[in-house]
Known about the structure:
Elements: H1 7-40, H2 48-81, E1 93-100, E2 103-108, E3 113-116, E4 118-122, E5 127-133, E6 138-141, E7 149-151, E8 157-161, E9 167-173, E10 185-191, H3 193-203
Parallel strand pairs: 1-5, 4-10
Antiparallel strand pairs: 1-2, 2-3, 5-8, 6-7, 6-9, 9-10
Helix pairs in contact: 1-2
Amino acid sequence: MLDAQGPAARDALFLWWLMFGMFSVVFFAVIILWFVAIRKKQTPQHNTATMHRRWIIGGGLILPISAMILILFFGIPAGHRMLPLPSDSEDIFVIEVTGHQWWWEVVYPEHGIRLQNEIHIPADTPIDIRLTSNDVIHSFWVPQLAGKLDMIPGKTNTLRLQADYPGEYRGQCAEFCGLNHAFMQFTLTAHSPENFAQWLQEAQ
C-alpha cells in the first residue's frame, strides 16, 4: 500500500499520510495538554466558565470541523478520480471480474478470454474493472494500484485502475468471505502495450 504504482493508489496514499499527519498532531497536542493539566491541577483556576467555553468551541467545534473540511477538500477529488468517468482519449478497456468462494473469475468480454486468479492489463492505460460476486460479499483490492471496492451479489461496481509501469502486482480479497478468505489471492500482470497486444492474441 505504501508503494503506489498508479494514479489512484497515489491519491489514496496521499490521503493516508494526510490523515496520519493530522492524527499525529492531535495525539501529541493531547499529550502536551495532559501534562499541562497535571502540573496545574492544584493551581486555583480563574474564569473557569470562560475557559470551559473556549475548550468546547475550540476542541468540540473548530477542531473537528476544520479536520473534516480539510480531509473532504482532498478526499472528494481523489475519490472522483477513481470513478469510471468517460475518458477523453479513447474507449476504456473493460475486464469483468466475479468473486467466488474462494477464487476469481476473470473475463475479457470483447475478446472471449476467461481466466482464473490472474489478470493481464496494458501498462500506462486506464482500465475499468467491472466487479460482482457469485455468492457472498467480496472486496477487490490491488494495493499498489487502487483502493478497495466491494463485490456484491446481484450488483456490478466499476473500479478504474492504472499501472504506471509493467510488472506483477498482488491482489487480495479484502472482505472476510469465509473459511479460505486469506487464500483468495490473484496476480495482476501489467504488460507494455506491445507485449499486451501479443498476449491478447495468444490468449484468444
